[in-house]
Design a protein that fits this description.
Layout: H1 2-24, E1 44-63, E2 70-71, E3 73-75, E4 77-89, E5 94-112, E6 122-142, E7 152-171, E8 180-196, E9 200-216, E10 223-240
């Protein structure tokens, strides 16, 4: 009985000392580490490939040896383009790339009236093949709340400048024109939408491609086509690395 009382009293003493011991322990609140927000891919290089369909138009065709000297383009041409490039994106919405596109376009036409002198009257059409090298800059902006964190939809605008290396021939009544080639200034404006899957990004957009002049000095009646604009719908896939 005495041993039982002693055990009870000892246990009570231990219980009473626990608050005092707890009060003497150092205050320790371990820091809670919050992981950084994943803002997507920043500072990434990428490879790109594009393909598109387009319609061409020009301001006018000029013959230096005819009367009159200028004629309005009256029928649009049609064609395609394929291209590739390499670029860099900053992670802030801005990106830049260099691209090389091969472009084919057919049947942009001009009608020469019978009253014109120095060139056969009738419908003349152009067959154009161009290699277009451009340096481009773009700005991407989110169209969904999670863009930049977990991919998602985005829109973009862009512009480019460079050179077009043209190879062409015209077809029509009278003597066949001589095939010729020239180098011209070129520029482009782009707008579109896309989806960021992470390492792969796909977009669909419009590109207006401007070629300053297509100039044939070898034809029987030399001519220049001024201010050609090619309206394209293009799809592009980018791969980040």
């Amino acid at each position: 009985m005495h041993k039982f009382k002693a055990a009870v009293l000892g246990a009570g003493a231990v219980v009473l000392t626990i608050p005092a011991m707890a009060a003497d322990l150092p205050d320790y609140n371990p820091p809670i580490e919050i992981p950084d927000v994943d803002d997507g891919y920043g500072g990434a290089f990428y490879l790109r490939g594009s393909a598109g369909l387009g319609l061409s138009w020009a301001r006018e065709l000029e013959h230096t040896t005819t009367t009159p000297t200028t004629f309005d383009i009256d029928e649009a041409g049609w064609g395609y383009s394929v291209g590739a490039g390499i670029g860099f994106e900053t992670g802030t919405g801005f990106r830049a790339d260099v691209t090389v596109d091969y472009l084919g376009n057919e049947d942009m036409a001009v009608t020469i009236p019978g009253s014109a002198t120095g060139v056969a009257p009738g419908v003349h059409t152009l067959s154009l093949r161009s290699t277009v090298a451009l340096a481009n800059i773009y700005y991407d902006f989110g169209l969904s709340g999670d863009y930049g964190v977990a991919g998602g939809m985005f829109g973009y605008v862009g512009a480019g400048a460079g050179l077009a290396f043209n190879n062409f021939i015209s077809n029509g009544p009278g003597p066949a024109d001589t095939r010729d080639q020239n180098t011209s200034l070129a520029a482009a404006g782009m707008v579109g939408v896309g989806y960021d899957f992470g390492s792969v990004v796909a977009d669909l957009g419009y590109r207006g491609l401007y070629i300053n002049k297509i100039e044939n000095d070898q034809a029987a009646a030399p001519y220049t086509i001024h201010d050609t604009l090619i309206h394209e719908v293009r799809g592009t896939v980018r791969y980040r690395f």
